[in-house]
Amino acid sequence: MPHRTRPMTALLVFTGLNVVLASTITPVYDFVCFLPYWERRREQRRQECEASLVHSQST
């Protein structure tokens, strides 16, 4: 007995899954991109860059 396919159910599940993933991507993106770790790292790199500029200008 062959397996019956249910294209409407598959389409609804696929669409529902995409809606859920699309609605959760913004908070996940914000969480990953704006972690305090990256903010601290960005600030540290900025300070290192400024320090190297001051050092190179003074010599």
Task: Summarize this structure as a short list of keywords or feature phrases.
59 residues; 2 helices; signal
How would you characterize this protein structure?
The chain has 59 residues and is mostly helical. It has a domain at 34-59. Helices cover 85% and strands 0% of the residues. It is built from two helices and no strands. The chain has helices spanning 7-33, 36-58. The protein is rod-shaped and about 80 Å long. The model has no long low-confidence stretch (mean pLDDT 87).
Summarize the structure.
This protein is mainly alpha-helical. Helix content is 85%, strand content 0%. The protein has a domain at 34-59.
Alpha-carbon distance between the two ends: 85 Å
Helix/strand-derived category reads: mainly alpha
Mean pLDDT: 87
Q: Sheet with the most strands?
A: none
Strand segment count: 0
Number of helices: 2
- Helix content class: over 70%
Topology:
Elements: H1 7-33, H2 36-58
